[in-house]
């Protein structure tokens, strides 16, 4: 199906391509249901896991410096070269891991019911003499019925739990010691609705609007058996390799150097814990294990003031969020305050994974990205075409509904590649969405961590996005907000249908900061090293004990095109 068809002024049936009047959800030519025909049936599919890193990717890679800045022109990038031998070897290791868990934890309802409703409607429309009044009534009813079979997720309003992550190297027989290293982000103790700031906005009267806490990490402990070593979450606390703590296994140790650094103590994305060691050649042990436990308190929050969510979700009341009616324009992206984000996260091209080779993960200069952005913009009403919220939300819907969820590539698809292929996993679809927004210099940036299901039973590595949206001058004036704070920063997770929504069943351990270069993202992806005799590397997540969700749950539905 042509993914751009929906933007043409004369709509066409996605099945037979016949022109449609636009008043029916049933094609007048072939009789098939047009609503929900794109991007639903194959979006959730089992995907092959991989050892580590974001989206399940792991293994050592040659270092590739990520550089910031736009390449000249708007020419289409050349096709990527074949994967190097090391990546092919790691792909074989992925087969050994046997991890086939999907990376999009969404609960689908049976779509056979939708097909049954469609058949009934087709029969009624084709064989009823007075069609128009019938269709007018049935179309509304059918829409209500479709809501019953809409894919949905259930999330707690708030939750407290202990998340355990387990990392295990398995080596084969070797004539030498088996060395290994893994770098794990140390989370900040509090992630708020304003990133890591405790202030949402400053007011014209000199006061401030506090930022609610979305995630509080109470403690972090590590160990090769039981998690016994307390890792300080306070910034500035450093333990370098010379004072590393030896774990219970006797051959591995942990330390947490200062951010930055070089070589084995390189932590470009911020504070990190480094686990390293070497299994002696004479040892009968062939595996190394690290358990990490995080005690977490987390809360649901939305920045969208008109979201279809219960009022019990924090952010739904109080008037501190944003909607289309309170959004600023593209010109406002250069205003004092949000201009800080535009300058640092608005470049058309970002994160060159080939160190000057032009393989940008985010690429708003690519012709296919520009074509999609132009079509999205044209699909908006004339009054909305300069509205940053309207454009960003429409781009979110387009990627969500038109890109099928599927396993990611070893080298994650760039935004253009994801759009061109029509498939992608969490970070790849984030690349696609952020690429579309970067065509208009809308600030977007990465966030990474671990995603859990609503019942806390399934967990997987995950990546999503952040966005800065300008508020209108009128909205800021009515709220008494200082012009330097006339914007909103929020979370967007395309593959899990979270538009300006944060939920407790996600653990965040990395958010790009303003002083990024791209090396920070590169460092998150490539944080594993090992000797050549590695047989496998596995990452697992689970909850220790029983989570608590004292305030109950809410359901997030997904309606195609909304």
3D architecture notes:
By secondary structure, this protein is an alpha+beta fold. It has 2 domains: 1-38 and 110-149, no CATH class; 39-109 and 155-297 and 314-557, C8orf32 fold. The protein has 10 helices and 26 strands. Residues 1-116 have low confidence and may be disordered.
Features:
562 residues; alpha+beta; C8orf32 fold; 2 domains; 6-stranded antiparallel β-sheet; 5-stranded antiparallel β-sheet; 10 helices; disordered N terminus
User: Briefly, what CATH class of the largest domain?
Assistant: Alpha Beta
Shape: globular
Tally of separate domains: 2
Alpha carbon gyration radius: 25 Å
Assembly type of the chains comes to single chain
Low-confidence stretches: 1-116
The average pLDDT value, as a whole number, equals: 79
Helix-strand blueprint:
Blueprint: H1 85-97, H2 112-127, H3 131-148, E1 152-156, E2 158-171, E3 178-185, E4 190-192, E5 199-202, E6 208-210, E7 213-223, E8 229-230, E9 245-246, E10 252-255, E11 272-279, E12 287-299, E13 301-302, H4 338-345, E14 349-352, E15 360-363, H5 367-379, H6 388-402, E16 404-405, H7 415-421, E17 423-424, H8 426-438, E18 444-452, E19 459-470, H9 473-479, E20 487-493, E21 498-499, E22 501-502, E23 506-511, H10 519-525, E24 528-530, E25 534-548, E26 553-557
Parallel strand pairs: 16-17
Antiparallel strand pairs: 1-26, 2-12, 2-25, 3-11, 3-24, 4-7, 5-6, 7-8, 7-12, 9-10, 10-11, 13-22, 14-15, 18-19, 18-23, 19-20, 20-21
Helix pairs in contact: 2-3, 5-8, 6-8, 7-8
